[in-house]
Amino acid sequence: MSQPQPKSVIIVGGSLAGLMHALAFLSLPNPPRVRILERAPTALLHNQGAGVVAGGETLQFFEEYVRPGREISVRSPMRHYLNRTGEEMPESVEHRTQRMTSWDLLYHLLRWRVEGMQSEYVEGLEDDDLPKAEYENGCSVTKVEDAGTGGVRVTWTQTETGESQTAVADLLIAADGGSSTIRRLLLPEVERKYAGYVAWRGTVPEMELSGAAKEVFIEKFTFFHSSGNQALGYLIPGREGTLEQDERLFNWVWYCNYPEGSPELEELMTDVHRKRHAITLPVGAVQPKVWEKQQSHAGDILPPQFAEAVQKTQQPFIQAITDNISSRNSFMDGKVLLVGDALAGFRPHTAASTGQAAYDASTLGEWMQGQIDWKEYKTRVMDFARRVQQHGVVLGEGSQFGRHPLSG
User: Tell me: the pLDDT tens digits for 257-302?
Assistant: First the structure.
């Protein structure tokens, strides 16, 4: 297939992967019209306060495409493990710098570059003269059809009005996450499957941590393992993306096993309004009695520093860990592409979901600019997806259902 020159692009999904792909298109010498259809009804996607490991793919994308004009990450020059009593395990110490950021900082920087959204995160930063995308909320896609030489036809329903709308574009990018509607329409046999455990997540203001907790957490990537449990934590930017000392956040993740169909899992994923959530129980939705039980459990099983962080967290949320991977990333003669989590959902142990979004968008940029051909684009994106997805399964199964060599 020859290099395409789309005049119009529809991107389904307005989170990080969708915004990164939009920016790759808008940065072309002759950019197409870019229209983003986001399912969420609100103008801003809800910030879960989640931390993100800023890997090489992410940092490279932001340097090349976003050019934020500010530092976006906290440096953690060391990784180490704690034992059950909270002591550092000397054999675990690894001096290797990693950079940590937050989902909300990346999201606001991307929205600013892609469609000009202003916020405290970008205050004082210099805008560029790139054209902007059209960003529309409350769009639930219902149908995708091959329009022949005319491109691809997308039909969606507006949440507020219930009105059905249709548009045709040269290219459709499906960046609508692990439960992708586009993937379900095109590959209904690909299921998102529960892996047998969840991630409890939360943040604590750095200044609220005790001295003992700061000693093991500040600018360190800290881990703990025991049978069926893994906890990890690191510093991330604070409110409005600040990197000032004592204004940052400590971000923690605690993986716990819950068998599928068990009463414990059903109670866990049922919110304060008695609604059962399949994948994510958002901030503010955890039942108080469930959270109190988990905080008590933290004191029984985690090192005291991690237990402290859990017990000081005001707004936890829960993510069920799942697996999904598609057999292909291209449909309708290359007019529909699956990218990011819609293509392959990585377990969080890989710290690579944001990196996948960045890698896919950067690779698409290379293809659009003629630096690689269509075949190489497809191959590289699929190879990355398969390799990291499988690596995540190995890491997760070993962590939660095996015997970790550094279990404390």
Answer: 999 999 999 999 999 999 999 999 999 999 999 999 999 999 999 9
Q: Are residues 136 and 240 in the same domain?
A: no
Rounded Cα–Cα distance for residues 170 and 296 (Å):
55
Q: Decide if 363 is inside a domain.
A: yes
Residue 274 belongs to domain spanning: 74-98+194-322
Would you say 356 and 20 are in contact if contact means Cβ atoms under 8 Å apart? no
Whether pTM > 0.90 for this model: the answer is yes
pLDDT of residue 4: 65
Pairwise CA distance, residues 401 & 226, whole Å: 10
Regarding whether 380 and 268 lie in a shared domain, the answer is no
Hey, what amino acid is at 217?
Answer: F
Domain total for the chain? Answer: 2
407 inside domain: no
Which residues make beta-bridge pairs with 174? 12, 338
Tens digits of per-residue pLDDT, 91-138? 999 999 999 999 999 999 999 999 999 999 999 998 888 899 999 999
**53 and 145 fall within a common domain:** yes
C-alpha 30/C-alpha 7 separation (Å) is 9
Domain match, 33 and 155 both: yes
89 and 148 fall within a common domain: no
Same domain, 116 and 176: yes
